[in-house]
Amino acid sequence: LDTPQRRPGQACFSRFSLRQKERRLQGGQCIHTRRAEGGAFSGVRSFERAREKRRHASEGASAERRRRVEQSTLTQHSRQARRSAPVRSAQEREANPSRAAAGRMMMTSNALQQRRGVVPQRRAVPRSVRTHAKKAAKQKNIFEGQRPWVELKDGVPVDGPDLSCVVDGVKFPNPFVIGSGPPGTNYHVMKKAFDEGWGGVIAKTVTLDSSKVINVTPRYARMKSQSNSKEVIGWENIELVSDRPFEKMMEEFKRLKDEYPDRVLIASIMEEYNKNAWEELIGRCEECGVDIFELNFSCPHGMPERRMGAAMGQDCDLLEEVCGWVNDAANIPVWAKMTPNITDITNPGKVALDAGLEGLAAINTIQSVMGINLDSLRPEPCVEGYSTPGGYSSKAVKPIALAKVMSLATMINEKYEGKKSLSGIGGVETGMDAAEFMLLGCDTVQVCTGVMIHGYPLVQNLCAEVQEFMVKHDFKSIDEFRGKSLPFFTSHTHLVQLQKEAQERKKAAKSGLKSDAEWTGDGFTSETESMVSN
Fold first, then answer.
1. Nearest alpha-carbon partner for 174 in 472, 504, 477
2. Other C-beta atoms lying within 10 Å of the C-beta of residue 434
3. Fewer CB within 10 A of the terminal residue: the chain, N end or C end?
């Protein structure tokens, strides 16, 4: 053979591949080796032994690799099967203890069949889909010590005065409720609200047919303080109700009630002027375990052509009929959410309560135009150069909200002896804001825009600030000061009369002494002052 230079004892086939060597052997060629120091040996026998050794080594490595891959596959499929297998109760496990072992054998057999292509493989659950509740993060003061703060455990402050309240037979751990809107759009954000301690959550308004709901972007506009560019004082939105499928929202309602059975979940609902639709909406929501209904009769924008939202809440005849349908169909408390875009908010309020509803919520957003961009000459928020009037909220609307709430609370006290509930809404961002609403007769206080600006942990500051107010005035519970400021509202005519009487009393006090016998030693200077005219 024509081979390169070899070292002593080196076989002549060392530079050829195994296939080339086999072809040479099959052709009758003999491979010679040079004599080594250890003696000569047959090249053919050496080649055969080397080939057999390589074959055994290769087969061993392949078998080991196959064993590891198979074990990995079995483990993966067994885990997936265990995750998808139904959870048995303790009684079932005691009644059939061998079922676990049989289940493992069955899962292993299925995994082998799937690997061999006998049965279709189960699609793995995406990692992004969480099949269990995530552990709540540790609470902290988002204002970094600038505002009072208290830790909440299941919505209850760990110390300080009691903030719990019972409204229409439903117990709230504290009076703060997430208002219907973006903070209640899906399971994850509502779960976050419960974890941070909110007393209740009102989901974003749902309808049976969400396919008709199409939102645009941008859909928000802000008004900021001129003295502090970071402070938001006004907020406009042109957002519609929930655009998520009704069935999906019902699944998430049920999941929330399964995970938080003692927390208050409120369904905000809205429909067209259709009795069957309202009855179906109520029935299906009740099946999910919601605690209260809030009827959206007050959304100021979107779908007025379908006689929904404020278009229904401003028509007392229409409102009376729909509230009657709902009251007959519902088995849980119902609140009617009132629109402020009306001359006298007590008129639709009376209609709703006379129909049998348990309470009212006020106010929804105020119809508004945020402003005009003086560079583009287009209104805000601007969508493809155009806009539409929207709903105004945030701290700028609080004075208007307080006035509407005062009117409704007064009407409830006079006409219903205070036996109807009231939930206050409008510009609440501090515990002091909330205390004002409760002093005017509100049982609960809703926050929506405040959460969008500050985040869900805001509730811990709200609770702490209300507790400080209670300690200052020595109130032991919310019931002790709810509605306490209502008696101090009166008519303007009565204000004129009160002032006249006060002036007369002051004049009488300034009239001085009638005789010298009335002088006293201790009050001599004040008695002298009482007879000075200027």
1. 477
2. 24
3. C
DSSP lists the bridge partners of residue 36 as 39
Pairing status of strand 200-202 against strand 176-178: parallel
CA–CA gap between residue 265 and residue 254 (Å, rounded): 10
Q: Which amino acid type is present at position 238? A: I
Side-chain-side CA neighbours of 282 within 13 Å: the count stands at 24
The residue behind tokens 């719990």 is 164
Q: 204: which 2 tokens?
A: 């974003």
User: Quick one: how far is CA 106 from the chain centroid?
Assistant: 41
* Distance from the Cα of residue 232 to its chain's centroid: 22
Helix and strand tally (H, E) in the chain?
16, 18
- Judge contact between 175 and 478, C-beta under 8 A: yes
pLDDT one digit per residue (tens) for the chain, 534 residues: 444 554 554 444 444 455 555 555 555 444 444 444 444 444 555 556 666 666 666 666 666 666 666 666 555 555 455 445 454 444 554 555 444 444 444 444 444 444 445 444 444 444 444 444 566 778 989 998 899 999 999 999 999 999 999 999 999 999 999 999 999 999 999 999 999 999 999 999 999 999 989 999 999 999 999 999 889 999 999 999 999 999 999 999 999 999 999 999 999 999 999 999 999 999 999 999 999 999 999 998 767 777 899 999 999 999 999 999 999 999 999 999 999 999 999 999 999 999 999 999 999 999 999 999 999 999 999 999 999 999 999 999 999 999 999 999 999 999 999 999 999 999 999 999 999 999 999 999 999 999 999 999 999 999 999 999 999 999 999 999 999 999 999 999 999 999 999 988 887 776 677 788 888 888 888 888 877 777
Closest CA to 426 of 448, 455, 452: 448
Phi, psi of 234 (to 5 degrees): -145, 145
Q: Going along 191-231, which residue ranges are E strands?
A: 200-202, 220-224
Integer CA distances (angstroms), 72 to 84, 121, 175, in order: 19, 15, 53
User: Which sign does the torsion angle of CA 160, 165, 171, 175 carry?
Assistant: negative
pTM for the whole structure: 0.72
Positions annotated as catalytic residues are 299
> Two tokens at 131?
């099949």
Burial of residue 188 (number of CB atoms within 10 Å: 0-12, 13-18, 19+):
exposed
End-to-end CA distance of the chain: 139
Q: Which of 171, 168, 178 is nearest to 156 (CA)?
A: 171
Q: Which amino acid is at 262?
A: D
Q: Return the structure tokens found at 196.
A: 């941070």
Q: How many residues does the chain have?
A: 534
How far is residue 247's CA from residue 252's CA, in Å, rounded to a whole number?
Answer: 9
